[in-house]
Specification:
The complex is a heterotrimer of chains A (280), B (360) and C (282).
Chain A (H helix, E strand, L loop, with lengths): L12 H30 L4 H9 L1 H34 L5 H9 L6 H12 L6 H6 L8 H12 L1 H14 L2 H8 L4 H30 L2 H7 L9 H10 L3 H33 L3
Helix pairs in contact in A: 1-13, 2-13, 3-7, 3-8, 3-10, 3-12, 5-7, 5-11, 7-10, 7-11, 8-10, 9-10, 10-13, 12-13
Chain B lengths: L2 E10 L2 E11 L4 E5 L6 H9 L6 E6 L2 E2 L5 H4 L1 E4 L11 H10 L9 H14 L15 H14 L4 E5 L7 H18 L2 E6 L2 H7 L2 E6 L2 E6 L1 H6 L4 H6 L4 E8 L2 E4 L2 E4 L9 E7 L4 E4 L7 E10 L4 E8 L4 E7 H7 L6 E6 L3 E3 L11
Parallel strand pairs in B: 3-8, 3-9, 6-7, 7-8
Antiparallel strand pairs in B: 1-2, 1-4, 4-5, 9-10, 11-12, 11-14, 12-13, 14-20, 15-19, 16-17, 16-19, 17-18
Chain C lengths: L9 H27 L4 H8 L2 H34 L5 H7 L2 H4 L2 H12 L6 H6 L8 H26 L2 H9 L4 H30 L4 H5 L9 H10 L3 H33 L11
Classes of the chains: A mainly alpha (280), B alpha+beta (360), C mainly alpha (282).
């Protein structure tokens, strides 16, 4: 496609390339350089140190905890995201707007405050603290607290993806399924779910990325007990604060790889969603 | 299976979509619900299907109450205006859907289902497209898939919501005739909704004309066209000319001419409105003995089987007439000519339902 | 006749949603209010207006605002370039724009700190020209700009993509120069999206913790953001103090967002929601 010279419909070639240059410089400075820096710093002291850092027992424990947390938070948010989207997108009821706003609430709360509220609820001096202690439940400064805080922070992702999608798809296909004799679950399984599968996957990808990468909220509830209540991001912080830079960046590089995988998966699904919406 | 609706009323918030509508559809008939947007016809269809619940009234299938039965239990075939095909499934899977979701004991084996699906696809002439997805089909093809899908579960009633509304003119014509032939072949009780009067008159056994949530008239296509029961029906079906006047002294006085009262009308002195179809107006070059009025030809459209003549009367009223090509050439009509117009037949209404304003 | 819902599952879906919402979101959030009531009005006031707290509000708000402004300018530029121009690597860069979104904040924090520290790849040049970045408010702005980068780009891109070329053609046919067209025709169409992007970037920047604490230096009164102050109070088991400041911060954020939302509404009202203004196509 040949680039036309300046006209009233497009900028001059010079202007165009200046703008492209500026945008590239900005993106380069803000995106590419930091990304490269992480890997460069991680491998600064050689592969040996890199490997030692990520196979260190504390690091492995952190990796395990991160995975477990995501494995609990994401499916739960998926199920309830589906339920919320079903109720909101396919039915009319008073207070729908309020409900949508409430679902978005965790997005507008600072991560530290998101963690703080669970400390206030289940901490030793918390509202339900004595009750938890009486039942021998360790929530704050233990894994359950981390999971709860993560669920809170990643709560809206799936619902926010599904609600507009389900709303745009309307109710006709479901109604058609009913006229053909399908039961409620048959209708949901065979018609609704296939229609939203890409949007659902997209929401899950975002939810997972946030669940694994959450720092602020988890930092407040975890108690930073090495080997027990440290997720990968927290482990990175500890290593960095102890000036073990290469090790810190080594673990960080794993998280970077996760982010890149997330981006790729996201692009692929985005394309599918776009294709799907063109079928109308 | 026959359908009966008794005093069905449906409200959406403050808006009443249907006012105590009662209607019977005998078994095996093809009935059209005809009316403008907002007349409640789609709502009525959805109530029969169970996709809406009425505030008051009852729905009966073959004399049995069906009002409380859920949509899945009613076993009606419903064809949606925008097809509502399952976009993630192939044509084959769409048609097979109803057969696959049956409870285990009623379900056929996959080979039997496949045979049935192919039979239906042949019926709608889409046999080779089973592997395609809805997005790969044309509008007319999608509509036929929707029909095949609805027929797959052998419903006792077939309901179609503006089935040809989203298609272009030629496809619409073809599918219309095709639907009529299909109905004659299968004989299933069918109700379809349309705002297109040509469609209703051409396809249906019975036409139900609806307006603002009420039934204006029920009858055969000929009955509603030639003997409209209310001004609305007259207006809605075909073009019409409007004449304002009054009934007095046993005659109808309309501006400059006076006609005898049509037989059977009450000769009481009241304001009246008369309706006359364009093809029932006659044009002459000279005064004849009949009641007529003078008019000037404002516009002539001689393209087509009938010549459409637009005239302005002495009182400024615009009148539309349709005459044959023969007559047109006989009279050597031209724009600007002064002629005499007489009315062969008209309908006079004196009730409060008379509508003001020009014809369609 | 009772109104019956046609599609099934409403009760189950609503019920479980409300239950989950209450357990995970509403009840925990309510603790903020409950805990604050344990303070007297005077105590509350002293805590939230302490010099340290006030300095932290100023810093958090100021840095988030500055970063959001930077993002509007450069984010808008990036969106324009990505949508309107073709160049090698465009698709790749388009995908990378979401990196700050997908990257854990701690990783962003240490990466940017290392870069902008006095001996870092970029920091050494900054030091040479006498503009230290790390451990200063400027560093915080840089980090928040990184975090908020995708927000403006992603809200402006779809609007740009859906922009009706016919409008620009109409302007051109009426004799407008390119600059004129951009300023008078295109920019107004983008304004609602820019404002939305600004609001989202601002909101995100306000609460940001993980990436900021590495670069900030965290000196009270100078480079201490409000979330960190809350965290410190929690570590000192001063729960009441932490909650009080959190409440103020939450209220501040919500009010500001409400204001921006109104601005958005106003902008959208003038230009119409996503409809091509006035151009009727055949």
């Amino acid at each position: 496609m040949s680039a036309p010279a300046a006209s009233a419909l497009t900028e001059s070639r010079v202007v165009r390339w200046v703008l492209i240059g500026l945008a590239l410089a900005y993106l380069g400075l803000f995106l590419i350089v930091p990304l490269v820096a992480v890997f460069a710093k991680a491998l600064e002291k050689g592969l040996g140190v890199y490997w030692a850092a990520i196979s260190d027992p504390m690091a492995l424990a952190a990796i395990r905890l991160t995975l477990v947390t995501a494995a609990i938070a994401v499916p739960l948010n998926l199920v309830f995201g589906l339920a919320a989207a079903w109720a909101i997108a396919k039915f009319d009821f008073p207070g729908k707007q309020v409900l949508e706003t409430l679902i978005d609430l965790p997005f507008s709360v600072s991560p530290v405050i998101s963690g703080m509220i669970f400390v206030l609820l289940f901490g030793a001096q918390g509202l339900l603290g004595p009750w938890a202690a009486a039942h021998g439940l360790k929530i704050i400064f233990a894994v359950p607290g981390i999971v709860l805080a993560t669920i809170f922070v990643t709560f809206p992702f799936v619902a926010r993806e599904l609600i507009p999608l389900m709303r745009a798809q309307g109710t006709e296909e479901e109604e058609a399924a009913l006229t053909l004799g399908a039961s409620g679950w048959q209708m949901f399984r065979r018609v609704t779910l296939p229609n939203v599968k890409w949007g659902l996957l997209y929401g899950v990808i975002l939810c997972n990325a946030r669940a694994m990468g959450e720092f602020g909220a988890v930092s407040v509830v975890s108690g930073h007990i090495r080997g027990l209540t440290n997720t990968m991001p927290l482990h990175v912080e500890i290593l960095y604060n102890e000036y073990q830079f290469a090790a810190a960046f080594a673990v960080a590089s794993l998280l970077c790889l996760l982010a890149l995988v997330t981006l790729v998966a996201k692009s692929l699904v985005e394309r599918k969603v776009r294709e799907g919406s063109h079928e109308h | 299976m026959s359908i009966e609706l008794r005093a069905v009323t449906k409200r959406f918030g403050d808006f009443t979509a249907l006012h105590e509508v009662s209607l019977t559809v005998p078994t095996g008939e093809l009935v059209a619900l005809l009316g403008p947007s907002g007349s409640g016809k789609t709502t009525l269809l959805r109530i029969i299907a169970g996709l809406e619940t009425p505030e008051e009234g009852e729905v009966l299938f073959e004399g049995q109450a069906a009002t409380d039965r859920s949509t899945s239990d009613r076993r009606v075939g419903f064809v949606f205006q925008h097809y509502a095909l399952f976009r993630q499934m192939t044509v084959f899977d769409n048609v097979a859907f109803g057969l696959r979701v049956k409870p285990r004991r009623e379900r056929l084996s996959e080979p039997a289902i496949a045979a049935k699906v192919h039979e239906l696809l042949s019926l709608v002439q889409l046999d080779r497209l089973g592997g395609r997805y809805p997005s790969q089909l044309s509008g007319g093809q999608r509509q036929r898939v929707a029909l095949a899908r609805a027929l797959a579960v052998q419903p006792k009633i077939l309901l179609l919501d503006e089935p040809f509304g989203a298609l272009d003119a030629r496809v619409r014509q073809e599918l219309r005739r095709w639907l009529r032939r299909l109905h004659d072949e299968i004989g299933i009780t069918s109700v379809f909704v349309t705002h297109d009067q040509d469609e209703a008159l051409e396809v249906a056994d019975q036409v139900v004309v609806m307006h603002e949530g009420r039934v204006e008239q029920i009858g055969t296509p000929q009955e509603v066209y030639e003997h409209p029961a209310t001004p609305f029906v007259y207006h809605f079906l075909g073009n019409v000319n409007l004449f304002h006047g009054r009934v007095e002294g046993g005659k109808v006085h309309l501006g400059e001419f006076t006609m005898d009262l049509p037989p059977g009308m009450d000769p009481e002195t009241v304001p009246a409105v008369a309706y006359a179809r364009p093809h029932l107006l006659e044009i002459d070059l000279q005064s004849t003995g009949r009641p007529q009025f003078r008019a000037k030809i404002q516009h002539l459209n001689a393209a087509g089987p009938l010549v459409k003549v637009e005239l302005v009367s002495a009182t400024g009223a615009v009148v539309q007439a349709e005459i044959s090509q023969e007559r047109y050439q006989q009279l050597h009509l031209q724009k600007g000519m002064e002629v005499f117009v007489s009315v062969k037949d008209m309908k006079v209404f004196t009730s409060a339902h008379s509508m003001l304003g020009g014809g369609i | 006749m009772k109104a019956r819902r046609i599609l099934p599952g409403f009760g189950l879906a609503m019920g479980s949603t409300l239950l989950y919402l209450s357990l995970i979101v509403l009840i925990p959030l309510s603790t903020v209010l409950v805990k604050t009531t344990s303070l007297t009005g005077h105590q509350f006031w002293t805590i939230v207006t302490s010099p340290r707290a006030l300095a932290s509000y100023r810093l958090s708000l100021g840095a988030a605002l500055a970063a959001a402004v930077v993002n509007v300018v450069f984010g808008g530029l990036v969106a324009w370039v990505l949508v309107r121009y073709r160049f090698p690597g465009r698709r790749l860069l388009d995908g990378l724009v979401d990196l700050p979104f997908a990257l854990p904040t701690a990783v962003a924090g240490i990466a940017l700190t290392t870069l902008y520290a006095g001996n870092g790849w970029i920091g050494r040049y900054a030091a040479r020209i006498g503009v230290p970045v790390a451990y200063t408010p400027l560093g915080i702005v840089v980090v928040l700009a990184f975090i908020g980068l995708p927000f403006v780009v992603r809200t402006v891109q779809p609007v740009l993509q859906d922009l009706d070329v016919a409008m620009e053609e109409a302007a051109a046919s009426l004799g407008a120069t390119r600059w004129h067209t951009i300023r008078r025709v295109i920019l107004p169409e983008l304004t609602p999206a820019l404002v939305t992007g600004f609001a989202l970037a601002f909101a995100r920047g306000l609460g940001e913790y993980g990436s900021v604490i590495f670069i900030a230096g965290n000196m009270p009164m100078r480079t201490e953001i409000t979330p960190l102050l809350i965290m410190i109070k929690l570590e000192q088991f001063d729960y009441a103090g932490a909650t009080a400041i959190a409440l103020v911060f939450l209220t501040l954020s919500f009010t500001l967002l409400l204001g921006v939302n109104l601005l958005q509404h106003r902008a959208r009202g003038v230009h119409g929601v996503g409809e091509p203004s006035g151009v009727v196509l055949a």
